[in-house]
Amino acid sequence: MTSLRYDISVLSRSQHTFSVTMTIPATDHDVLVLALPAWIPGSYMVRDFARNIITLNATNASGESLAVEKTDKQTWSLVTNKQAASVIYTVYAFDLSVRAAYLNDEYGFVNGTSVFLEVPALSNATCEVTVSLPEALDHWHVETSMPLTDQNGAHYLCENYAELIDHPLFMGECVLDSVNVDGAEFVFLFSGNTPINTKRICEDMVPVCQHHLSLFGKPYPVDRYIFMTLLSDAGFGGLEHRSSTALLYPRFDLPLEREGGAKTDQYVTFLSLCCHELFHTWHVKRLRPAVFLTPDLSQEVYTPQLWIYEGFTSFYDDVTLARTGLISPEKYLEIVGQNLTRLQVTKGRFKQSVAESSFDAWTKFYKQDASAPNNIVSYYTKGGIIAFGLDLLLRRASAGKFSLDNLMQALWRDYGADEKGTPDDVIEKVCQSEFNIDVSDYLQKVVYGYEDVPLNDWLADIGLCLHTRPKNSAADRGGVPPSPAYQKHPLGAAIKSADLGVTVQVVFEGGAADLAGLQVNDKIIALEGYVVGDVLLQRLLNQTDKTELAITVIRDGRLLTLKLPVIEERQEACYFTIEDKEKLAEWLTS
Q1: Which of 270, 335, 463, 544 has the highest CB neighbour number within 10 Å of its CB?
Q2: Where's the PDZ domain (predicted)?
Q3: For residue range 368-384, what is the model confidence (pLDDT) as tens digits?
């Protein structure tokens, strides 16, 4: 079997199009199926990437046209009569995200699932890739984690189609830097020419890389890894790949070349994002659910295990920053308090388990609407808190001998290093077989049931106490102690400013807005006869001593006045206090 060859080139930056020529060798098949994935691994939503293929034609080696017919939304039938063939197609690329493909005046970014057609009959054939740039773009830099075959040009070779689509490809203007950590090279790429302080980022990421490498041990799964960051005005995202990650981040939330000083919250979030995606190199890309070993990319592939993979990673993305000294213990606890607050205000946690949330990610978590806070739970957020609780449970049950780190190492040894794939009950099994600790009751309650994680049962072991308080304002994310001024009477809705008044985005179940009969998209224009915006609305709510207020709204062209009950703020903001600094320090270093 000879290789499939792909030549990708920039067709038009203004029209955001790539041209791809795929050369297929002669086969024993008269007819070949061509297909493009409907989803990209790591992002659990059918996205129908084939909709961006504009034109597609095929010829034989003599240049004669071959019959090609589209058979459904993402597959084609190509009549080759056992001959070699070339398939030439144009791809529209203007999705500024980590999931698809994008091309503008500064750079091009490609996920293979968006641009490289698969020939299922040849899915195990090696795949050669060439990036061809016009002379006007010869200053563009090409970067990818694909194995390079020609040091003098952008020519690459992948073992099969699965590997081909697991190496995002960047071409364009960028800022580059790298650092070596214990023999592994970590490359940091930032799109465009923003003067990012790459030296600082490299220095800050060294202990993160060391932490992950040390946790899982040698041999390392990568010897070169790329943090490929697309800079934007306001975007955010991350997607893991086997030897790289694609990130999307606001350019001016990062430290600039000549900036020093303390880490901003935005920069800490970036470090956490990098930490999260790098952790996936082990814990998702190699250690993963059995159903994801050879997933069918034409349709949904269901698993109840995402709480393990995204939840555990969410625990490590923050605790690693504290363990390595990149943030203080106090800052770490603030972040965890914010995560708990986010979970506390989500009433959906009593209706959907994290196992169900994992299974339904395709249609619920990835397709959230205004009802989401009331009806679903995040397997990222609650999964991270479950991991925190599991660590404390294991330490208590083993008198400090075992922890979540030991569980991760056992999972990697038994399922990840050889990529065996995990069963749904893997956590119970490994905790029992490795540590002789039964965690089934805990998991039944917090993973498969709807109970909150009982952190306060164990927090004293690490010198902490968890508290709740009223929110200071609608924007209060928790994580810190109460302030003298707080939101006394919440509206019970998420709102945004409008030209007149405010527009209701979410009505929280059981809150004042819900009891008053407010609905999503209502425009609140007055309270007690006063025209209001978001600030005045809350001021009037806070100061009232009444039990009910008249609220005036516009609903789909109708003017309504409703009775808004005045309700005391719930104790939903969470924060920690440190009761024993030595115990906390020991936990963070053991």
Answers
A1: 270
A2: 491-529
A3: 999 999 999 999 999 99
